[in-house]
Amino acid sequence: MSTREGKSSATSPFDDLLKQSRESFNTLAGSPGPASESSRKSSSNLQPPSDELSQPPEPSNVRQFLDGRYGDRWRHEILERKRERDQIIVLCKLTIEDEGISKSQFGEATIKRGSGGVAQHAGKVNGIPFSFTPSETDNDDGEAAAFRRATESALAKCAESL
Fold it and tell me: Best label site of 48, 61, 97, 98, fewest CB within 10 Å?
């Protein structure tokens, strides 16, 4: 029993950290939870030409490709999102509902800075170099755009593997 008590006290800080990370993620993603990242698309009765189905879709038109091929029977979820320096990495899950198909892939995108972007600060402390860029709304827009691009990239990889 002492092992169980020790285990729960050891996981409590981790649980708090996980909760904070999820809240930060939801704030950045603009959604209350992972289920709201799901996306259902309206049906289009037009079928794309057969040569379009045989080619892997480009990230910019992957949603049109999926709409044309599966109508409103597909959805996607963002299972994980991570930022490493100026990179956004997402894990996307594509589900084709009536066929029971599910594919997951990673996508990534670089956060782009505007031409009038924020100045980067750099220096050394005790001989250790550092640099950082202050956060401003321009950065937030760049991060949101990178999140969208990473999602499109992951979704395209999922569609390609169907």
Answer: 98
In this predicted model, what pLDDT tens digit does every residue of 9-66 receive, in sequence order? 455 677 777 777 777 777 766 644 444 344 444 333 344 444 444 455 554 589 999 9
Spatial strand order of the sheet with 39-40 comes to: 39-40, 74-84, 87-96, 101-110
Contact 65, 57 (CB under 8 A): yes
pLDDT digits (tens, 9 = 90+) for 110-129: 998 765 555 566 777 777 88
CA distances to 57, 73, 95, 121 from 98, rounded to whole Å, are: 21, 7, 9, 52
Q: Are residues 129 and 71 in the same domain?
A: yes
Q: Can you spell out the DSSP letters for 26-38?
A: HHHHTSSSGGGG-
Contact predicate 48/63, CB 8 Å: no
Domain holding 14, by residue range, is 1-30
Residue the block writes with tokens 């309206």 = 42
Domain count, the chain: 2
Distance CA 109, CA 59 (A): 12
Structure tokens at 149: 């691009």
Residue matched to tokens 């999820």: 22
pTM check: above 0.70: no
Within this chain, do residues 122 and 85 fall inside the same structural domain, yes or no?
A: yes
